[in-house]
Amino acid sequence: MKVLNKLILILSLLLAFISCNKDLSPLINDKLELNLSNNNSEYNSTPTANLVTEAIKNELGIDIVFYPESNLKNNSLNLNLDLTKTDINERLIDKTENDIKSLYDTTTNKDLICISYMKGSQIKDFIKERTLKNNSIDVHTSGIEYDITIKGGEIQNYNITRDGKTFDLDKQYKVAFIYYEYDYKSNFPGYYYGNGFNYLEVQKTDKKASDLVIDYLKNNNKYSFLNKINSKVTVIDKTISDENKIIPIYSIQGEKYKSEFTGINLKTRGIITAYIADSYNNDYGFYMQDKYGDNNDYTSDAIYVELDKTVYNKYSSIIKVGNLVEVEGNVDETYTGTGLTRTSLISINKITLREKDVTLPTPIELGEGGSRTIPNEHISTYKGNVNQSLKLNLNDGIGFWESLEGMLVKVKNPIVTGAKGGKNNALESKGYFNLFVKPNNVSNEYQVTPSNGLIIDVEKNDYNPEIIRLINHAYYNKNGQKPGDSSSFKNGIFNVGDELEDITGILAFNVNTFGDGEYDLLINDYITAKTPRTSYTPLADRPKATLIGDDTHLTIATFNVENMYATHEKIPYIAEIIAQNMKSPDIIVFTEIQDNNGPDNYGEDGSPVVDADETLTNLINNIESKGGATDYKYININPLAYLEGGEPGGNIRVAAIYRDTRVEFNKRGEAGSLDHAGLDENGDLILNPGRVYPQEPIFKGTRRSLAMEFYFKNNKIVVIGNHLNSKGGDDPLWGAKQPVVLSTEAKRIKLAKIIHGFVQEILSKDENKNIVVLGDFNEFYAANPMKVLKGNILTNLIETLPFNKRYSYNFQGNAQATDHILISKNLKNHNPEIEILPINTDYMGQYSDHNPVISRYEFNN
């Protein structure tokens, strides 16, 4: 950078001199070699990449450009340019164009430009996280300047400006970047999971960076563009001066979340306990553990060594489980989206074999009778960024698991609490598989469900830190086997409550399927159920409803059917659940009913498909064929295309079916997507069905609530179905920021106020109205949005169940209630009852990720 600055200054002076003294131009050589190269290791911002970003910015009219250094084959650009010519185009011969194009890796679309929009705050966070992840700047920009100083892996200074002024964190900027990925591990942040599947629109172009640089040089014949080559970062790297000194692994790990040696080059020694060589994902490395350890519960004795393929191939003959090796490399804290890190060694210089076939360290035993007691109440009691805490808190889950990072552990008598991926969904098997378990007899008894799973206690902030995720990672054990890929694990069938034999593995911190991270066990041995399953539990053997309608009892249910469309293969199974397990309730409110062609955006005629008549008709026909009720009719109001969130193209909505020989539904009006149901002077719906204040801006990107009016034995019942915005976007439970920030909660509170207000309007006209408010609220019954929704006018029937039965969903092994049924005061006089059928969350072979919830009311007249 200093060389470049000198070059720019000289060029500027020369050009200024030329402009004022044309007669002196012959004193200048005819040609100047423009050498843009990085000759100062203190700066990681390469002039060549900065020239590329400036070219993209100007040629495409972009606010800010990101360009990864890894996309350049060569960071040095040499052009022979004629300063005596007024038009560089005259000197830009084919050879020069080829020189420019040879800089780029174009084999995998790495040279193609994509365009999107990002908020300033997203841009700032992205730059910071990428810098921390790599302990250097690897993303070049144009349009903003930033200055980051890192010392020992910690940011000492971070400043970002635009045109020398404060960067606007609230503004949306037009951003260019190269394809979607900056490397094989990290996606561009403009594409993210939010409410359903919200994402920033990304416009692909046919523009290539190499062509844009050529055009840029052609269009800038005065060299003034050189003054804009910026984007500087200062990286201060510390090293251990005594190159022969061995730093023990436990000293590297220390008693904090982040190593004091971050960013330092050093040597350490350990026994390889597992290794990975995954050419498909370009993933190579190994875990190693100190031979003896320091007997300090606060310090881990193990660490991960991250390798590139070249280094792995060089040392593959000695990377074997049981070998004691000495490793030289840089200490790194690899960040996930949570802000927590995995302590690793990167940029490996040398691996030396010290001893072969060493006995592996004895695994730390966890569970009843084990050597370490697992916390069973709080993930974290720390307030602030746990990375800044002075010492691990072993009474918190997040501190306890960090103290074992990378170490061999044994989980004693584990019990399955949930599953994700693999064959968990009987109809859509996933390539990955996570199994969640708890060590036996370590949990609070009142949180153990009837199926022997675990339920959260929101009021006590207890999200069961004792749950461990088992993952089918590709790590090899001492026998050269990958137990995680075995049929007994990846393709095995495990129901909640199943008991497993003791499991040995490596405690690690890894990214989960949502892009966040959590502690989990990389299994090092085969997993065995004490009573193995060879097939799914059939629906006939799963729970069945006890609350059934009759002459004096009305049944009303809610069921999230998870993205169900007309031709989905799950429809016969959902129909069987309704017919046989739920016993054909009188009214069922569904969430996640998709349009007829599901996630496809358009029909055969090229126009958007929004109608769900085929989806609901097909469901009703299948209910009848499965021995269920023959009198179902459907209620549906189509949303406007693509405006209510959920899977892109699916147009999910709240809909309902009802038994027209059991309840009376009198349709009034023809409500459109944005038509409010309204109330007459008696508190009856003007539009039946209608939507609840659908034009309120807060409903943007969220399913509108559906209001319906029925009669049962001359008793009027208003039913309001709901599906509030998801929790996607909240801080993860296992994150650095504690307590977690629930950023999506504010929207649910506002939605709850609108729904509560509508109920209050009805009751103000007739306080004895029978009102049922139900659906998937994406919230826990003790959380603020549900408290707002209830106010002092509604009762949540979920809260009348025994504590350990209050769950309709399972997230990462934690049973929880997000589907609710609330009733008005008058319905409390009609012997209200409720039950949840755990036919999905407690079983592998799920047909939805939610359980149906059924309520029943007694009407004697």
Q: Which descriptors would you attach to this protein?
A:
single chain, 861 residues, alpha+beta, seven-stranded mixed beta sheet, six-stranded mixed beta sheet, 12 helices, 29% strand, disordered N terminus
How would you summarize what this structure contains?
The protein has 12 helices and 42 strands.
Uncertain segments of ≥5 residues (pLDDT<50)? Answer: 1-33, 38-43, 182-199
Structural class: alpha+beta
Strand proportion: 25-35%
Categorize the overall geometry.
Answer: globular
Radius of gyration over all CA atoms, rounded: 31 Å
Main sheet? Answer: 7 strands, mixed
Average pLDDT for all residues: 85
Distance between the termini: 87 Å
The DSSP helix count reads 12
User: How many strands in all?
Assistant: 42
| Strand order across the largest sheet | 19-21-26-27-24-23-22
Helical content class: 10-25%
